[in-house]
Amino acid sequence: MIRVEDLVFDYPGFRALDGVSFAVEPHSITALVGPNGAGKTTLLNCMAGLALPAAGRVQLDQIDVHRTPREAHARMGYLSDFFGLYSELSVQRCLDYRARAQGIPSDRRAAAVQRAAERLGLADRLKQRAGELSRGLRQRLAIAQAIVHEPAVILLDEPASGLDPEARFGLAAVLRGLKDEGMTLIVSSHILAELEDYSTHLLVLEQGRILDYHALDGAPAPNAARRFELQLVEPRADLAAVLTAAGLGDVRIEGRLAHFTMAGDAAVQAALLRRLIEAGLPVAGFAATKADLQDAYLALLKDSRARASAAPHVNGTKIQAPAPAGPVP
């Protein structure tokens, strides 16, 4: 669907993207996350053909986004983190204006406007002026403008910024609906709990490089370590010692609750539970816990920074890998 290859982008004296490569699966929602300054917005701008990289390329269905941007834009929708609407225009006229800009023929324009309004729950607001809409409805209108031409790929930069919890919940339902209709979405956000509600993939960017990219809904490997929670009837002072002696990792005690990691299938888990009960622990509950998006993200950053701090030093100076060559504008 969309492929990024060895993308490099430089600001004066600063490399924002450093050899970024990945391919987005069709009909998916990819959560693009990373610390401030990681390069998320720059990456989206490059993918949308709005910023020219120093090296690398972006392809959308075999279309080179930077060589033939008009052809790519016909297949792509984009919403920046700071968007503008014509406040004096009605919702209908805003969508009609965007449909005209996208080259939708006049005989199909009214249907395209109606379809986009229905998708974003704005069908009953078509006559209302954009400036009279709430923050959440203006966000919906901006997304409706981005999809009025039925794009295959949608790039959204912080779409939930400034929305209240109810509006965020509604936006998540809208994005899931667009995916179910066959669109592919890439969404940048700092609200990890919100991304978890609808994302199928996680793409982590740090210091202009891909830290991790994986599917969120895949089953774990059979021998992969997983996190578990053990609940006791009452606290036990020796709980940590018992769990550590059983060979469990990353043991953390919170009163009657214990969290730890272990690898193995259901038989291994059953054997562990039997061993804990035989050790006299008053077990009230034992189950695997689902690692949420925030846990996965923070663990990745922690591991990356630990590896960076362990890099070799010479005379007190850390040895850095040389940055790929590329012109600085």
From TrEMBL:
Span of domain ABC transporter: 2-232
A single GO molecular function term of this UniProt record: ATP binding
InterPro entries to which the protein is assigned, alphabetical: AAA+_ATPase, ABC_transporter-like_ATP-bd, P-loop_NTPase
Keywords: ATP-binding, Nucleotide-binding, Transport
Homology family: Belongs to the ABC transporter superfamily.
PANTHER family tied to this protein: ABC TRANSPORTER, ATP-BINDING PROTEIN (PTHR43335)
Protein name as annotated: ABC transporter
Organism, scientific name: Hypericibacter adhaerens
